[in-house]
Amino acid sequence: MRVSDLHELHVEEAGTPDGAPVLFMHGGPGAGISPIHRRFFDPSHWRVVLFDQRGSGKSTPLGELRDNTTWDLVDDAERIRERLGIESWLVFGGSWGSTLALAYAEAYPARVKGMVLRGIFLSRRTELEWTFVDGARRIFPDGWDEFVAPLTLRERGDVPSAYHRKLTSDDPAVRREAALSWNLWEERASKLVAEPKKVEECDVEHEIAIARIEAHYFVNRGFLETDDQLLRDVPRIRHIPAVIVQGRYDVVCPAESAWALHRAWPEAELVITADSGHSAFDAANSRALVAATDRFAERWVPAPAL
Length: 306
Hints:
Number of helices: 10
Strand order of the largest sheet: 1-3-2-4-5-6-7
Order of helices and strands: EEEHEHEHHHHHHEHEH
Radius of gyration: 19 Å
Strand content: 5-15%
Shape: globular
Number of domains: 2
Number of strands: 7
């Protein structure tokens, strides 16, 4: 689906054409979709719409940063809804996907029938400082030392900007080294038990695209008007039924952000899983997410005739 003179999106549908529509928003930003993402939805109940955001996955151009902002992605989601003739849908997103889901819902509340969010990231300064200044490094000091090793002492004063320069370098070797280092730092913290990918298993061009897009969004603070924009605009969506799933030991997106969102949106159900980290595929997180989509399906999908 072409959305601009520059960008073309890869869009998929799964499940049943007559099912309740749901939009899946992937994380990263830049991570792209995978067949495993369909497994959060019972295919006999849901019409699942998934898309690779600009520059991600199978969308083209891969890793492109021009015309690539939060609000471009929000408008892309609305274009997809209109193209598919969907009146309103459940919106599902985790990590960066939760950021984008909130931004979309707050921009188009009439088009959102319900929400399932995980590992809340509000793109606030404190969250970025947790990851890149003085938070996660206290839990992963060994990984942090490896992460900042390619940087000079001066560059370590602003790690995202230093990596952004490397990831947008004209030198392919510099981009490759920076991308693998950036992604490894995130992977170390993403699961309760880390399973970092081996370099030989990586698709280097996709690794570079993910890291480039993440750094692009982080140095631009998610392209939000204010640091608290997503919390500020929660009143626009408080009428929407929602479930928030948060791993207690999430080191990428600590539970404080989910708690802040729940305090602003007390009508939303908050499920804190006692034995999960950040990953949607930590077992307790997966169970809670599937339970949430199953409950929405029971509410919205008519029972089959006997």
